[in-house]
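Can anyone check this?
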Amino acid sequence: MNVLVIGAGFGGLAAAIRLRAQGHRVTILEKRDKPGGRAYVFEQDGFTFDAGPTIITAPWLVDDLFALCGRRTSDYVRMVPLDPYYNVRFEDGSVFNYSGDMDALVRQVRAFNPDDVEGFLRFSASTERIFEKGFELIDQPFHRIRSMLKVVPDLVRLQAQKSVAAYVNQFIRDERLRQVFSFHPLLIGGNPFSSTSIYALIHHLEKKWGVWFAMGGTGALVKGLATLFEEIGGELRLECEVTQIVVDDRTGRATGVQLADGEFLPTDAVVSNGDVAFTYMRLVAPRHRKVNTDAKLARKQYSMSLFVSYFGTDRKYEGIAHHEILMGPRYRGLLHDIFDRKVLSDDFSLYLHRPSATDTSLAPPGCDCWYVLSPVPHLGGTTDWRVTADAYRDRIFRYLEERYLPGLRKHIVTERHIDPLYFRDTLNSHLGSAFSVQPTLLQSAWMRPHNVSEDIPNLYFAGAGTHPGAGLPGVLSSGKIVADLIGGEEPASTPRRPAGARA
């Protein structure tokens, strides 16, 4: 079979590698000058900046791709565990060092609030049960309603109707600890106050198998996967933008794609690793979309966007860890502004990334490599980023300098930023959303955009907007689902920790 994959993000690469390993002829068509999608890499003035994801969990899912082709991950990229996973800092000066060391976690919970130790232990134990049921669904297709009906009893038992925040709050009283153990949905584009509590499984996933980093940055992992794909006979075409998925009016099947330069490429199947809403609304003619209409897609709830500044300093800040979560003065109110009101608040919470704390090669000698990320509303709000971005950037740097990085602005030697316009115009993301469809209960599993189109039987989807969702484990698993569907297999179960998985 001849398969065209639109987009060389992690989902597209995973699907393409698996399909090629099945024996199909596979070509990836990537709009940009190098692979990665959201995991693009900016190189500037001797600094290397990962534009996208920096947190690697469930590393065996990466190992599986290389093993499938008779290779080892370590032959392509070196991945190292991080400790701590994150420092979570609060404006009162308190710091929670989040790691997989259960004894250390208990000691810190006790220091924050002794009355929460018992509740934390119960919460932590409960996330293992959620993981056991929830993670086994991660590479199961949910394009048929019967698949959803099978898991409804489990979802009820796991309290999936509750949000992650509501689930955590029933165990823990201290407001700071509630934030520490509920912020994780933000890493996949979800609001902790509306994302289904199934995502509490991230606590157990990280505690059991760690948080990892690819030396050279996440871009090194992208490069390794792209190299693997080409080594096994796949074709990767860069600067190759798809402008239309051509569908036969008689059969309703995709027959090929039209490129921006006018070239037509025939195919037996199309896999879109692009944004689901963009793919349907911009690449498929409305007459071929009786189910996935513009109106239906517009009704979905989309994730927040991001403002990210990438910068290099001519000095090191040794007291800052690889991953820092900087909690602002508000939590629920800020998230309400971002997700519901869609307004840009005067305050913010930030994710500060310092990869040179682990890999000094990412910055010149004596320097540090950074990005600072602020969740912001998507473009469904009223913010005009063409006039707002510079002032917002200044506010963030002033805040960092006053509280965490003394003298920062005089030490910045290179800088660039992205905002919701980048996600819309460069990444073709609907409304400039950074993570596509929000991970709410009513937008999960069968109720999430399907991995195979209801309208076009040979159009498939891998990536953040389809099942199972955003985050590296999710998009890698979506590639497996697509490959299994095209290969005629629907997997029965997922090994939660295969033999040889990293401890």
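Reply from J.R.: I decoded it. Residues 490-503 have pLDDT under 50 and may be disordered.
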